[in-house]
Write a structure and sequence with these properties.
Layout: H1 60-64, H2 66-69, H3 76-81, E1 85-86, E2 95-109, E3 119-130, H4 145-150, H5 155-161, H6 165-169, E4 173-174, E5 177-179, E6 190-196, H7 207-214, E7 219-224, E8 231-233, E9 239-241, H8 244-247, H9 259-293, E10 305-315, H10 317-328, E11 332-338, E12 360-365, H11 372-375, H12 382-401, E13 407-412, H13 425-429, H14 433-458, E14 476-481
Parallel strand pairs: 1-4, 2-5, 6-7, 6-10, 10-11, 11-12, 12-13
Antiparallel strand pairs: 2-3, 3-7, 8-9, 13-14
Helix pairs in contact: 7-14, 9-10
């Protein structure tokens, strides 16, 4: 398994632990590789230069948090011999179906393809409500796993899962998702959600969270970002591996970079990147709209989508891409960014453009600040760290207060929750009961607030956990900013 390492690209100005997991390793003299796992090794070599540090909550706290999800080493044989891992079950009334689609956007050139004139291609997985059935076949957790296991481009995916790969390869991770069953009986229309994953994370790694949302009556269109997912398998057998240059994160930070210079550099790299992900979201809405209304559509959910109530949702970098889609597309009525952050806040600021007009929710994982002993080797004082941290917090809060449609800031400050907790990785990797339970509880907590936001904004329900006036006993703080318009 390849573990998280400091990324010189980021410089000393970022504060989110999870943000470091989105990008390339930039250590001088080493081959640039995509970060494969959320579980750092117990001994982490950090760069000595200031520009290689992530001062606030970016990297140092990830070292602190290692013990939360680091499990005892296990052999592949032990993993395979283990009993089947059953993902936490959804709490809603609906069963879940999933179907895959291969879509080509003929309006966009794929700039990273080696084929001249190639168009942007996506693999998209649609989860939708279904009826309970013992006759329906369950979907495999990881589509195309046989091709990935035998192919030369599967290294990124195998490394992402680490020791858990043996469980996946042996089909010992069992979900509650059925393979293309009929849509749930009845006439209830289901709001549409798009979902964009974190950078370098396979979209099915969010199965537990997606199942929870779908079980409450939503259709989720989950997008695999080609050239940025670990590997994408198309129906014709092509394997598209991740490319470092697709993210723009393969260059180290210049020495002595100031915060303003860092923000400018981030904007230069991120603007086309975020626009590409937002275009994927908008194209997916176009395609699913055709499947829903076409007279000849064979989609199992045809005719059942509520296209007046659409939300864009994403984790980490995908959350920032979702926010951009909201800025550009008024068909989208709500936006949820799950623990994605940049130096300008949870929403990427495009020059001359306003913040999204839709109701916005930012879920943030709380991280303890680094100790003085951890700061000392890098020549960073507590005063410097506090100043940078306070500046970032003020930036975040100011942006959330300025959202025209109002905002929710859900701070997850319960022990044991990390940036990885939005995915199934900690649960699948757990080899003992305590970390397994911890991961399950975290997924349940995150799922509860996710469903509450969509219920409130798309189904116009009241009395959700977001409407509670008292802090959640599980360790969640909700800050509400009314519409600024």
């Amino acid at each position: 398994m390849i573990h998280a390492v400091p990324c010189g690209f980021l410089g000393p100005w970022m504060r989110k632990t999870g943000y470091s997991f989105q990008y390339e390793s930039c250590l001088t003299g080493r081959k640039i590789r995509r970060v494969k796992s959320f579980r750092p090794r117990r001994e982490v070599k950090l760069p000595k230069s200031r520009e290689g540090l992530v001062l606030t909550r970016l990297l140092l706290t990830s070292v602190i948090a290692t013990a939360l999800f680091a499990s005892k080493p296990t052999t592949v044989a032990q993993q395979v011999a283990a009993t089947v891992k059953h993902l936490p079950g959804p709490s809603g009334k609906y069963a879940i179906g999933r179907i895959a689609y291969h879509w080509v956007d003929h309006s966009r050139i794929e700039q990273f393809s080696k084929v001249p004139g190639a168009k942007r291609e996506l693999m998209v997985y649609v989860w939708y409500p279904a009826d309970q059935s013992r006759d329906s076949k369950r979907s495999r957790y990881l589509p195309g796993i046989d091709v990935i296991a035998d192919g030369e481009n599967g290294e990124d995916m195998r490394d992402f899962w680490g020791d858990s790969w043996a469980l996946l390869r042996a089909d010992k991770v069992e979900n509650q998702t059925l393979d293309a069953p009929p849509v749930a009986s009845g006439s209830e229309p289901f709001p549409l959600l798009t979902f964009s994953p974190g950078l370098g994370i396979p979209v099915t790694a969010y199965t537990t969270l997606i199942q929870e949302v779908v079980s409450h009556g939503y259709v989720v269109v989950a997008i695999e970002p080609t050239y940025e997912a670990p590997v994408v398998i198309f129906p014709d057998g092509r394997e598209i591996a991740a490319l470092p240059e697709a993210t723009g994160r393969h260059l180290p930070a210049p020495p002595g970079e100031t915060r303003d210079q860092f923000i400018k550099r981030m904007h230069t790299f991120d603007e086309p990147h975020i626009n590409r992900w937002a275009a994927d979201v908008r194209f997916s809405i176009d395609q699913i709209t055709l499947l829903n209304g076409g007279k000849t559509s064979t989609a199992p959910f045809a005719g059942r989508l509520d296209l007046q109530d659409i939300a864009a949702w994403g984790h980490s970098f995908g959350g920032r891409g979702a926010a951009r889609a909201c800025q550009l597309d008024q068909r989208i009525k709500a936006c949820l960014n799950a623990d994605g952050l940049g130096p300008d806040g949870p929403i990427f600021v495009f020059e001359g453009e306003s913040l999204p007009s839709q109701p916005f929710m930012w879920m943030e994982v709380h991280h303890e600040p680094p100790t003085n002993a951890q700061l000392a080797p890098y020549g960073i004082t507590r005063k410097e760290w506090d100043k940078n941290h306070q500046l970032q917090v003020a930036t975040d809060e100011q942006q959330l207060r300025a959202c025209p449609g109002g905002s929710f800031h859900v701070l997850l400050n319960s022990g044991g929750i990390s940036h990885a907790s939005f995915t199934d990785e900690p649960f699948i990797a757990a080899t003992t009961e305590p970390p397994s339970k911890q991961a399950s509880v975290a997924l349940g907590l995150i799922g509860g607030y996710t469903v509450a936001f969509f219920d409130r904004e798309l189904k116009h329900r009241t009395g959700t956990v977001l409407d509670n006036k008292t802090p959640d006993k599980a360790g969640v703080t909700v800050q509400v900013a009314p519409p600024s318009r």
